[in-house]
Amino acid sequence: MTPPNNPRRRRGAGAPAKPVPRKPGAVRRSQLVTTYGVGSMIAIDNESFIVAGIDSWDVSEAPAVYERRLTHILGVDTFRLPPAPDPDRGTGGVVVHRFPEFYSCPKCKALQPFFKFNSDKGKARCDDCAEDLVPSRFVIACNHGHIEDFPYWKWVHRGVEREAGKCGGNLSLHTDGSTASLRSVVVRCDCGVPEASMEGAFRSKALKDLGIRCEGRRPWLKGAVTEFCDQPPRAMQRGSSSAWHPIMSSALSIPPWGEGLYALVEQHKLIGAPEEYVRFYFKDRAGLLAKLNASVEDVIKVVQAFEESDATPDEDDVPTVKASSRLRQDEYEALVRGRPEVHVAEYQPFVCETPDVDPAPIRELGLRDSMLVKRLREVRVLSSFVRGDEPTEADADQRQAKLSNKDDPEWLPAMEVSGEGVFLRLDGARLAEWESHPAVRARSERVRANHLALLRERGAARKDKDGKAVESHVTPRLLLLHTLAHSLINEWSLDAGYPASALRERLYADGDMAGMLLYTATSDSAGSLGGIVAQGEPDKLAHTLRAALARAEWCSNDPLCMEAEASGAGSVNMAACHACVLLPETSCEHLNGFLDRAMLIGDQTGTVPGFFTSML
């Protein structure tokens, strides 16, 4: 990562020394999409920075990531892997800006903007005390993504009628260590006003009572003007998870997209090219077609297929955390259909095969079949981010912070991962009978009502493309599939040797779909070693499923867990807690929401039948 405006010079003969940006630290490329994306704060040694917008990144050498269906949905030309710095030239990498601006000295206790400490270039040290500085622990941010330094001067001078910054005093920060609470963090001004602890700074109305409003600042975008914002700011810890929530979009590479001639056309930028240009392009590149045993006519047909796909956009596809889209439907159909491995020179990103043994053991338990996904490729894209409350379907567009000064960026940061997994489908007839049970629907309706209340609270005026109010997508099927996925992931983390945080879910619960993909994937091209695929064999899967259901029958927090009327963030869970079915949030695409063990094994009174109750 490279912060600007901090040059140093190389020594050499001849040409004058050229300023070289400072390189304060390094993170993995994948983290710049998932953990330290645009607008997030990162601590490096005793300094803190905010990752700059993508228009500040040098992507001239950054590899392109191809997934045509997803670029079409997100409205960009391509995706790019975050750039890596070039050590020889001292350039490249991802730019960061210093944030927050306020630092304190642990010795003299001075609390002031960084530049006032007169630190040597490349260091964050108090010039008077020769002590390493400490970046401010506190910032303020709003639900529309704006962020700025905590207003220490106004906080300590609250109740005093003085113009901001005009008291003539200097601020200092003290920590007496008497308690672990914010009461021991005290801000003082030597102008004579009483000191003020940070206790109460995180109250919802604390800043509003001081007349502090959001200034609409976006320090991650270079030269960005302040925006009008009517959202109340709130204090946050600099390292708090609520300071940055990424909005990710992802897609599996399914045939024919992303392989063979489709990959060739996309990578050589032939989409939309006229027929004459395609013929001319391959006049001296016949070797490319020979590897694929294809002709120019075949390429022309693929180019036309791309054009037809682009001409009929999917109205349902929007870059949000929602799972319902045509893209998911295509994936579901590909997973059901399967794709055997073909031993050819061309890399095959998607291999999905039926087990060789009889599926009777799992059909007895209510599963229709399992598919062994021996190879998969997933593209994950950072499309935006929010601060404060977690993103929901009802969020207004203003909540999604921009990654660039441009309204319509040409590219977005992305990464591709390879891995393996198991695709499971429930028995459709049994599922239809179960989800029509009145007690099941009534229990599901309670979660749906809580979700609708949350949606209205977050964005009462939010409308979809047809002008209708955004509705909850909670159904008995979703609750069942989601809770089953969590139970199996917890069980596989014990049997397959993978930590739960390394496993992920991908649910297919809309319309007629009734399946789930449980998989592991990494940025390593090798993916994994087959440990998850082995869990999909019917005999072993039946044993695992029985063990997972037996574990779900009792939680160490029962009876409180099973009897809970609502639980979890937003009250969108029922019988679910950290002692039973909750997972690391990296594994769950619904942020540990929409879970209920009763959908698997029934409730404590026997009123609500579990899907698997009669099969065990």
Description:
This protein is an alpha+beta fold and 616 residues long. Helix content is 24%, strand content 19%. Strands 5, 6, 19, 20, 21, 22, 23 and 24 form an eight-stranded mixed β-sheet that branches. Strands 3-4-9 form a three-stranded antiparallel β-sheet, with no helix packed on it. A hairpin with a 4-residue loop joins strand 7 and strand 8 (91-92). Helix 13 (476-495) crosses helix 14 (538-552).
What oligomerization state is this entry in? Answer: single chain
Percent helix range: 10-25%
- Overall body shape: globular
The number of E-state strands comes to: 24
Mean pLDDT: 85
State Rg: 28 Å
Task: Report strand %.
Answer: 15-25%
Secondary-structure class: alpha+beta
Alpha plus pi helix count: 16
Summarize the main sheet. Answer: 8 strands, mixed
Unreliable spans are 4-18, 313-324
Give the N-to-C terminal Cα separation: 55 Å
Task: Supply the key terms.
616 residues; 24% helix; 16 helices; eight-stranded mixed sheet; alpha+beta; 19% strand; three-stranded antiparallel sheet
Secondary structure elements and their pairing?
Blueprint: E1 8-9, E2 19-20, H1 31-34, E3 41-44, E4 47-51, E5 64-65, H2 68-74, E6 78-80, E7 85-86, E8 91-92, E9 96-98, E10 102-104, E11 111-113, E12 134-135, E13 138-141, E14 147-149, H3 152-156, E15 171-175, E16 185-189, E17 196-197, H4 206-209, E18 234-237, E19 245-252, H5 260-267, H6 275-281, H7 286-291, H8 296-311, H9 326-337, E20 351-353, H10 360-363, E21 367-386, E22 411-426, H11 428-435, H12 438-459, H13 476-495, E23 504-508, E24 515-522, H14 538-552, H15 560-563, H16 598-601
Parallel strand pairs: 6-22
Antiparallel strand pairs: 1-2, 3-4, 4-9, 5-6, 7-8, 10-11, 10-12, 13-14, 13-18, 15-16, 16-17, 19-21, 20-21, 21-22, 22-24, 23-24
